Amino acid sequence: MADERARYFRRLRRLRGSARRWSVAAGGLAGAAAILTPYAGLGLADAVWAGAAGASTMLAAWRWSDLRRVAARPAPPALDAAEQAARNRARLVSAVERLPVGAGVLTELRRQRTRFALRGSATGTAWERLDRASQTLAAVAGQLTGVAEPVLAEAAEARRTLSALVERTAGMERALATAPPAGRDQLRHARDELMGQLQGGVEAYEHLVVAALDYVAQTTVPVHGAGPDTARLTEAGDLLREVAAALAELRAAERPISTAY
Q1: Of 123, 259, 149, which Cα lies nearest the Cα of 201?
Q2: Span 230-243, pLDDT tens digits
Q3: Which of 204, 124, 201, 210 has its CA nearest to residue 167?
Q4: What's the farthest any 2 CA atoms get from each other in the chain?
Q5: Which of 80, 147, 181, 222 falls 20 to 30 Å from 237 in CA-CA distance?
Q6: What is residue 109's predicted lDDT score, i.e. its pLDDT?
Q7: Does residue 67 sit in helix, strand or coil?
Q8: Which is it for the CA torsion 14, 16, 18, 20, positive or negative?
């Protein structure tokens, strides 16, 4: 989203420039009409000059009125450095996502950032398992059709929930490392509960992925009699080889005749 303060001042500049341009146009047309109007009366050309001068004057007045109305409003407050950086980052991410490979690059960058942030943490192993299972499911997502298609939505929701649980558990670990000794037991108990939920959720997600792989394997194995007919393929290959040999013999027989001529 654009900076509201910058948008406010851009609108002021546009209105001021427009008001000045129409004021200059109105003054020039009014002067031309006053000079070119004959004393004997108004002709058609003089009426055009006068009408243009009047219209320009009205437009200039409206632009100055709009400028005063906008200038009377207080300017939006300036953004602090953190908010401005967040907006710039959001615009950059939006621009990259519009590129053909932008979404994949951003996904990989987020994965690497999460991996680095969880390095040395007890939640790092759980996140690695979750990420590996998620990539495996994404590789076969196009083959999960029919009755298995709703599994993708369930898996995506589970992935979001488990990712949020990873962040909460990692935050609890960081808080535990800096907490005073008096409150560490309670934080440790809360961390252990979150860790148990995370381990159970990741294990269930892995089981879901294994089930999806089993479904894909069963649906891609051809049923008996539906595979390629090896005997017919062999016969077709033999026939093509015989035709090629016959053509070679025909060319060899025609070559002396061509030479004789």
Answers
A1: 123
A2: 666 566 666 656 66
A3: 124
A4: 111
A5: 222
A6: 67
A7: helix
A8: negative
